[in-house]
Amino acid sequence: MSESATPVRLLDAAEELLAVSGPAGTSVRDVLRRAGVGNAAAVGYYFGDKDGLVAAVERRVVDGVVADRARALGALDGDAGVEALVDGWVRPIVALRCAGRGRYAARVFTRIFDQPPARWEANGAAAVRAMAGRYCAALAPLLPHLDARELAWRWQCVTATTDFYAIGALDFGEPAPGPDDVDPHVRRLVVPGSALLRAERTG
Fold this sequence. Notes:
Blueprint (H helix, E strand, L loop, with lengths): L5 H16 L6 H8 L6 H6 L2 H26 L6 H17 L3 H13 L5 H4 L1 H15 L8 H19 L15 H17 L5
Helix pairs in contact: 1-2, 1-4, 1-6, 4-5, 4-8, 5-6, 5-9, 5-10, 8-9, 9-10
């Protein structure tokens, strides 16, 4: 194994273990074993300590989703509808879940906003929030019945539903999804999400 591959192997191994056991149940020794890295000092060398490794795993998940959402938004033309925008937002999380990574990814997104705002630039929360703002700006002309506050609230509801899907809270006994389930599962989130956004205000 090349030296340049070592941090990626450690990140991959840590993410797999964190998805199952969380930070408290994941040891540096387990990560090294799963990664096939024999140098016990490797985690300290690349990430400082276990906390640094966990933070790096989390930021990699966040950055990947933000980049996917940016690409989806950039690929849409001026005639994109509400469904296409919801699709661009939820699809990266669905793809993580269908690849077996979603449960931990969803916990990552919950945890970054639970930290003090002073940490948001470092942990990716600021990037997620900024991307949400870009999506809401694209949606605003399509939903003139919603003011900015109501649109942001409903968009957070779409986001929360997506995270609940990612951790399996909406499965109701269904088997875990696989790679072939991405499109139908995206659709299951896009339909109610779009309906929520289009619904008239009641108050």
